[in-house]
Design brief:
Structural class: mainly beta
Strand content: over 45%
Number of helices: 0
Largest sheet: 2 strands, antiparallel
Helix content: under 10%
Order of helices and strands: EE
């Protein structure tokens, strides 16, 4: 399981996705 930081068009807005 990896935790990746994905950018949703915002540099200041990052979500953690568990894959």
């Amino acid at each position: 399981e990896e935790i990746q930081l994905v950018n949703h068009g915002d540099d200041s807005k990052q979500e953690k996705e568990v894959r």
